[in-house]
Amino acid sequence: MKKLKYFSILLLCSLHCLLLSGCSFQKKEEIVWYISNPHFFHIEDAVPYEDLSSERFDLFNKRLEELDIPAKVTFRYLPDMDMSSDESDSITDTYKKSLDFSAHLIRTLKEQDPQADIVPFSPMEYREFVALDDSLASEKNSSVLDSLPDPIWNVNRINGKTYQIPRGSMPLSDTIYSFSASFLKDYNLTLNEQEITSMTPEEVIDFLFPYFEDNRLLDKKYYLTSADDLSLGNCNYYKYLPLLRGFSDSSLAVDRENGKIVNLLTTEEMLNNLSLAQRIYREDLDIHTELQTAVPVFTIETITTLEELTVSTAYSDRIRFSLGKRYLCPSIGNGVLNTSSNQQLAIEVLAASMYDETLSNLMIYGVPDKDYTLENGHAIYKFNQVISSVGSFSPVGNNLIAYPNEYEVTDKVLVSEKLLEDESLLLPCSNFVPDVDDTTWEQISGIAAICHEAVFTAESEEISDLNTFLKEQNQKLYDAGIESLLSGIQSQLDAQKED
Fold first, then answer.
1. How far apart are alpha carbons 172 and 160 in whole angstroms?
2. How confident is the model at residue 20 (pLDDT cuts 50, 70, 90)?
3. What pLDDT shows up at residue 14?
4. Which of 144, 341, 360, 465 has most Cβ atoms within 10 angstroms of its Cβ?
5. pLDDT value at 19 more than 50
6. 3-state DSSP assignment of residue 472
7. Under 8 Å CB-to-CB from 335, ≥6 apart: which residues?
8. Using a CB cutoff of 8 Å and minimum separation of 24, what contacts does 461-465 make?
């Protein structure tokens, strides 16, 4: 009898312990999370649409358990580059294939794997995602709203709604004139920032040209510049918002000053850019006839390094001058598919990856002591990894709350919040993305390919008459239906402004 009583007490105690630790024994639901760059996690043998394995993924799930989130995340590989082109394809065909692949990335994924829950956000396919606003305002997820400053949320909305959680990299863009520090030292050249930043790119080239007049490749290590180095295929982002997010050379853009959809090949800015590209090619300033092992003396950067966020010892090989036109631009992030069978749990997992410092540091830097060490408050990778002073390139995690990398200042949160205080950084039309059906997309991608080929030609061939060339290109765009396309998208933008 005593044994039976003892057993009953033991059983009750065991049940009591189970109830107290009930969360640990909740049934875990599988959440499938797709990432596009497994190389970041040192995974070299990834197979498209199949599971990925890594110690940090195991630790990620262990941390979810500690947070009482009843999910087990399976990470899978989403290829984000088109590999179908071959040598027989024209420049236009190759570009169009790449554009179509990227624009239908999520649709293709859904066909390949209906189980997918969390995926890299694709702005042109935003209707494939769940609008997150209500879910993020709930008690269990609201911490994520405080993990990013309001301006980051604001610039990443599309037509008034939140479809992704940005990864926390500083979304400030600027136009920077950048110069080779070693060239300036070797040739004892001192630059006056005020004078240099008041020059056009062509005037900067004129200023530097005397050093290269007799020899386009100095000391076998310096050339003046190239069209690519000056981002001449792009236009003035501060004035023109590319209609296709992520595709700067699409020919279609919103003129921020008047809210009109424009064909960039008809703008003065693009004409000046292509004219300069022709000069660079004709005068061989980019040493395109030689094997390039040299560095450019003059470049223009539009994905920038922000001085305020950068430690003084970083990027010492370049001298940078800002042109003083900073603005907020959309970030890269992740969203939850509207076909997910477990949307609310997927949102909870995604939110946790952004508000929890342990998860962010794990996914950005890896396993402590194995993948990185902490030195003077900075996380130092033990293996080669591309970093910048505006965050890492991990597909998962919040750069803002993670440890600073060796290029970032230690008080990056306070500095970032200060940088984002200026409300004028959010430029007009920043949240606009058009709705397009398959027929309209065919028009858009065809028009973008025509523009891409025109820019490529101007950068790589000598054109006898640029004005005639541009008239021919614009005729191609007209024949492809650009006028009706501009009108249709303009109607969408006008309707959004009225709302």
1. 20
2. very low
3. 47
4. 360
5. no
6. helix
7. 118, 119, 121, 129, 130, 132, 163, 164, 165, 350
8. 461/281, 462/278, 462/281, 462/282, 463/278
What is the pTM assigned to this prediction?
Answer: 0.89
Residue with tokens 């022709």: 278
Mean pLDDT across 324-350: 94
Q: Which residue has the higher pLDDT, 499 or 189?
A: 189
Q: What is the DSSP string of 69-124?
A: --EEEEEEE---S-----TTS-HHHHHHHHHHHHHTHHHHHHHH-TTEEEEE--GG
Share of residues in the chain with pLDDT > 70 (%): 90
Cα(469)–Cα(466) distance, integer angstroms: 5
Supply the pLDDT for residue 99: 85
**Where is 21: in which H helix or E strand?**
none
Q: Nearest-CA neighbor of 166 among 360, 299, 312?
A: 360
Contacts of 154 (CB under 8 A, 6+ apart): 328, 426, 431
Which strands make up the sheet holding 260-263, listed edge to edge? 240-242, 252-255, 260-263
